[in-house]
Amino acid sequence: MKNRYRTSEIAKIFNISKQTLIFYHKKDILVPDYIDDENGYRYYSNSQIWDLFFIITLKEAGFSLEEIKKYSRVKKFVENIKFLEEKVDDIDKRINELKKSKKIIKEKILCLKEMSSNLEEQIRVVKRDREKAFFIKLKNPFDESEIAETYDKLKRICNKNNIKNINFISTVQKNNLYKLKDLVLEKIGIVLPKEIDMEGQEYIQEGEYVVLK
Predict the structure, then answer these.
(1) Which CATH class is domain 123-212?
(2) Is the CATH number 1.10.1660.10 carried by domain 4-73?
(3) CA 54, 59, 60, 63 torsion: positive or negative?
(4) Does position 32 have pLDDT exceeding 80, yes or no?
(5) CA angle at 193 for the pair 192 and 195, rounded to the nearest 5°
(6) Confidence at 91, pLDDT banded by 50, 70, 90
């Protein structure tokens, strides 16, 4: 096994550019074991191969260069262990956040697939009995963030009142009902179970209503 490796050799081993190694040197993250005074060639030791492997691992894990530099300067085992344990906790938190994001994205994909199917089959007229509902009026029906916050607020209201099966309901203008790109929601609400009463509740009269899946 060789004792020293030139910059080009290390770059080839790790499939990175020589400029990356030079950058790590300038940032004092990985200083070459030896620099030839005559030609300026940088040489790295065997142990530095493992150092670089770990640096790349930390970078791929989302560590900043400042964090990597801080770790490379710490020489005490106890401090190194504490630093890495904290970062493992950070990674676990990010994994949980990514799992939540993945779930939302998959739900969005499913929703888009359903919406891309035959819309005429998804829009139907049904007969409904007289029901109770709680509505929240939208200030700006074109503000998607307000719409999302309204749905979230209604979900919290359902959780607070122990409403398990959430049935959302909304009022729209008849003249743009089938123009889905311009569908304007005036109010968004939830259908209330018979046994639950809420301040500000309204009644939906018996009749025929359009249902959009």
Answers:
(1) alpha beta
(2) yes
(3) positive
(4) yes
(5) 120
(6) confident
